[in-house]
Design a protein that fits this description.
Blueprint: E1 2-10, H1 14-22, H2 27-30, E2 34-39, E3 50-57, E4 60-72, E5 76-83, E6 88-97, E7 100-109, H3 119-143
Antiparallel strand pairs: 1-7, 2-3, 3-4, 4-5, 5-6, 6-7
Length: 145
């Protein structure tokens, strides 16, 4: 099991950060490995929403679909994988801080199976991708100020 927790402070209001991060169309703009993300269920974003992602990892295309299991506007979204090469759960939290928003992602991934032999390498790659993605997100949103 690979566990990860990362945070970034973005000097923008929580409503703007939350709205931008929750829109799957924006994901490829800031999340380095993501090639495509799209909602595959009907209705607005909320509990029960399903989203399909296509990403690159270790030179492979990775298709995964997750379901939103918890959703609180401007506060939190929890995603649980329904398909893909490894099971995972990711919690995105948003908190107002002095001058902006703290965005925290916590992930538990069972990288075994498909990537079992490369598990330590995959963990490091994911860790770096999240760092890069958070830096991209911060730069992108603060540039829109």
């Amino acid at each position: 099991m690979f566990n990860l927790e990362k945070s970034v402070i973005i000097n923008r209001p929580i409503e703007e950060v939350f709205q931008f991060v929750m829109d799957p169309d924006n994901e490829p703009l800031w999340n380095q490995g993501t090639q495509k993300a799209e909602i595959t269920s009907d209705g607005p974003m909320g509990v029960g929403t399903t989203i399909h992602y296509v990403a690159r990892l270790l030179g492979r295309t990775v298709d995964t679909t997750f379901k939103v299991t918890e959703y609180e506007v401007n506060r939190k979204r929890v995603n649980k994988s329904l398909s893909g090469p490894y099971p995972y759960e990711i919690t995105n939290r948003f908190e107002s801080v002095n001058g902006g928003t703290q965005f925290t992602a916590t992930a538990q991934l069972d990288i075994g199976g498909f990537f079992k032999l490369a598990e330590p390498l995959v963990g490091r790659i994911i860790d770096r991708q999240v760092d890069t993605g958070f830096a991209n997100l911060k730069d992108l949103l603060e540039a829109q100020a």
